[in-house]
Design brief:
The protein has about 210 residues and is an alpha+beta fold. It has two domains: about 1-50, no CATH class; about 60-200, no CATH class. Helix content is about 35%, strand content about 10%. The chain is built from seven helices and four strands. It has helices at about 30-45, 60-80, 80-95, 125-130, 155-160, 170-175, 185-190; strands at about 15-20, 20-25, 100-105, 110-120. The strands form two sheets. A two-stranded antiparallel sheet has the order 1-2.
Length: about 210
């Protein structure tokens, strides 16, 4: 049996968190060093020439956008009844709070847009984030906490089934996001990106977060 107290850091510079029986080092300097190394290896592999992406592949871009429009429109129409039920549950849980959560996110090329989600947290969730930073269970700029106290009763159920993400099909239909793509980042997160992490901004963010 692992004694986690014996492997806990003795200073504030390097702190650990325990998740699923494993100790994860969250030392910020080490993360930055690893990011710089990855960026250096990537530059060596790519060389000095321009990186060829999908911008010149018109057929691919057209097909991908056509799929996004058709799929998101179909979901919004076919599951409008589910949207109504979820909205009613959120209102029943907190009648004074809004149904949708709106937040500025960073899309392709660093352009910002307003992302929509069903509200799964208390209305003062953003203000309470600072007091929970030390409990972050993710490395890098992203905040993640398994038992986040800001999540509402209905929100916990929505998150378990990933139903809180459904309004993002509005963003897909509008062209701000794609069905498949990386997670849309917050401006504060992008501000801390290194060269390696900024590659995420070369494509549209997506619902799949991958």
């Amino acid at each position: 049996m692992v004694d986690f107290e014996s492997i806990a850091p003795k200073n504030a510079a390097a702190r650990n968190t325990v998740r699923s029986g494993a100790a994860c080092d969250l030392d910020a300097q080490e993360r930055r060093r690893q990011g710089v190394e990855r960026a250096g290896r990537l530059r060596e592999e790519l060389g000095e020439g321009p990186v060829a992406g999908i911008e010149g592949r018109l057929a691919y871009r057209f097909a991908k956008r056509a799929f996004d429009v058709a799929f998101s429109a179909a979901v919004l129409v076919a599951f409008c009844w589910l949207f109504a039920i979820i909205a009613a549950l959120i209102k029943a849980d907190d009648p004074k709070a809004p149904v949708l959560f709106k937040q500025r996110r960073v899309g392709k090329g660093g352009e910002t847009f307003q992302m929509y989600k069903f509200r799964s947290m208390c209305v003062d969730a953003e203000e309470r984030l600072a007091e929970l930073r030390e409990l972050n269970e993710k490395t890098g700029p992203v905040f993640k906490m398994a038992e986040d106290p800001r999540v509402t009763r209905v929100g916990r159920w929505l998150r378990r089934l990933s139903l809180d993400e459904l309004p993002q099909f509005i963003n897909v239909l509008a062209g701000d996001m794609s069905t498949v793509g990386p997670r849309p980042a917050l401006p504060a997160e992008v501000a801390t990106y290194n060269d390696y992490q900024r590659q995420r901004l070369l494509v549209k963010p997506g619902l799949t977060c991958y």
